[in-house]
């Protein structure tokens, strides 16, 4: 199959990292031109700590397209190479986290040639995908191509149900292929964002696991897989997790009776399958994750460590006040030069806004909390270029704003907000001055 190839660097040229670092590093973040995406590296380090004995894979789709961590620097920090760095539980190689497109095969093949055989895995949920890969010239993509079968566990985001005839057709195609091998089965339960408590998030996780287990068994039966000497079917990898269900796994390390059944489920499934968790936004969290309440409030391993508080939100947007309207409505309002093309348009179920104004430049202080005071500035409405801040709560406690004042916002969905920015200004709250820019991370562009 001969298809003209292209690559992101040529189609979407990026600015020089060195030039960006020269412009920003060492300056105070308040002097950065707005709107700007700001990452706190200290929060990222804390949120990325492992506590659960399951495999982990960073969400490559999130990095490449949607989430703010679409930059090489962080990807190398987050995903340790199993061979060179010997990081326990980390998965080497990559899954191309979108549905397989014929036009993308030449670019993926180029990556596979550079990284080596078996390093680039692809999603499939249709036998035509296997036929497409069988036609790829071996010189273009040497060796076998690992595929992950996308299972629909009930939310119809993508994939095929465990009992479907289409899954059987995929299984037959994989079994007959000389180019493709099964790497595992995969699902991403986007509806898990509807969680409102750790127990609900664990219920979503159980649904993912049960669906993947059924899908893997159905697939292997179609391929004629035979039991091993211990009576089990050959191990394949079950890969699951949106951020709510991925972080929910942290709840099973406590000693509660409710957590016990989920630990037993994991232990049972791990006897027959390898298990890995994948997710993308967990290193920074956001207002949606706060609303989902999926992870525990404190670490069971280190009770002094917070896991779900506003101090655990590591991504903010720096914005500037463009005007104020103290008498426009029954509540004070202000205009910031950051609308949907900076914040995104995804709502959050816990409050009627598009972002929350943080206490910054103070290290801590009062702010709007959907589960607390409900007093503070929120982004009450947005247009393309602008956001209108609305004061929630008593007027006599309003935090005054002035023209030109810089503010930091917590967006609803860090993935979508991050995708609107070409690079990320990095600060580190573990440093003596948490407002000094330490680095600039360049975002990968392109689809």
UniProtKB/TrEMBL annotation:
It comes from the Eukaryota. It comes from Saxophila tyrrhenica. Pfam families: Ala_racemase_N (PF01168), D-ser_dehydrat (PF14031). Belongs to the DSD1 family. Residues 314-428 form the D-serine dehydratase-like domain. GO terms for molecular function: D-serine ammonia-lyase activity. PANTHER family: D-SERINE DEHYDRATASE, ZGC:162816-RELATED. InterPro entries: Ala_racemase_N, D-amino_acid_metab_enzyme, D-ser_dehydrat-like_dom, D-ser_dehydrat-like_sf, PLP-binding_barrel. Keywords: Lyase. One of its GO terms (biological process) is D-serine catabolic process. This is D-serine dehydratase-like domain-containing protein. SMART domains: D-ser_dehydrat (SM01119).
């Amino acid at each position: 199959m001969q298809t003209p190839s292209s690559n992101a660097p040529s189609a979407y040229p990026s600015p020089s990292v060195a030039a960006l670092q020269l412009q920003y590093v060492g300056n105070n973040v308040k002097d950065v031109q707005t709107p700007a995406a700001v990452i706190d590296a200290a929060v990222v380090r804390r949120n990325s700590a492992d506590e659960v004995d399951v495999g982990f894979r960073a969400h490559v789709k999130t990095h490449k397209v949607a989430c703010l961590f679409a930059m090489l620097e962080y990807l190398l920090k987050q995903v340790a190479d199993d061979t060179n760095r010997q990081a326990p539980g980390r998965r080497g190689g990559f899954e191309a986290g979108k549905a397989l497109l014929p036009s993308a095969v030449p670019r993926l093949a180029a990556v596979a040639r550079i990284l080596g055989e078996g390093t680039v895995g692809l999603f499939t949920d249709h036998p035509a995908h296997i036929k497409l890969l069988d036609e790829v010239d071996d010189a273009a993509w040497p060796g076998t191509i690992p595929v992950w079968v996308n299972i629909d566990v009930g939310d119809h985001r993508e994939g095929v149900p465990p009992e479907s005839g289409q899954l059987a057709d995929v299984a037959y195609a994989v079994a007959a292929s000389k180019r493709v091998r099964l790497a595992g089965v995969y699902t991403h339960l986007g509806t898990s964002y509807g969680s409102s408590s750790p127990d609900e998030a664990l219920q979503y996780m159980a649904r993912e696991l049960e669906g993947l287990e059924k899908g893997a068994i159905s697939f292997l039966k179609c391929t004629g897989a035979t039991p091993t000497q211990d009576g089990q079917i050959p191990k394949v990898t079950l890969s699951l997790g949106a951020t709510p269900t991925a972080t929910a796994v942290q709840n099973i390390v406590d000693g509660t009776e409710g957590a016990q059944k989920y630990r037993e489920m994991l232990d049972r499934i791990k006897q027959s399958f390898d298990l890995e968790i994948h997710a993308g936004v967990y290193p920074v969290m956001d207002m949606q994750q706060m609303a989902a309440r999926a992870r525990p409030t404190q670490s069971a391993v280190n009770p002094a460590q917070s896991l779900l508080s506003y101090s655990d939100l590591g991504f903010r947007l720096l914005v500037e006040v463009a005007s104020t309207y103290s008498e426009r409505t029954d509540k004070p309002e202000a205009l910031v030069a950051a609308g949907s093309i900076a914040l995104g348009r995804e709502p959050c179920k816990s409050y009627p806004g598009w972002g929350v104004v943080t206490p910054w430049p103070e290290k801590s202080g009062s702010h709007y909390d959907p589960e607390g005071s409900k007093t503070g500035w929120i982004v009450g409405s947005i247009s393309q270029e602008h956001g209108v801040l609305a004061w929630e709560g008593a007027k006599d406690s309003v935090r005054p704003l002035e023209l030109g004042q810089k503010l930091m916002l917590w967006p609803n969905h860090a993935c979508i907000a991050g995708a609107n920015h070409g690079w990320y200004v990095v600060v580190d709250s573990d440093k003596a001055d948490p407002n000094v820019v330490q680095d600039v991370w360049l975002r990968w562009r392109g689809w």
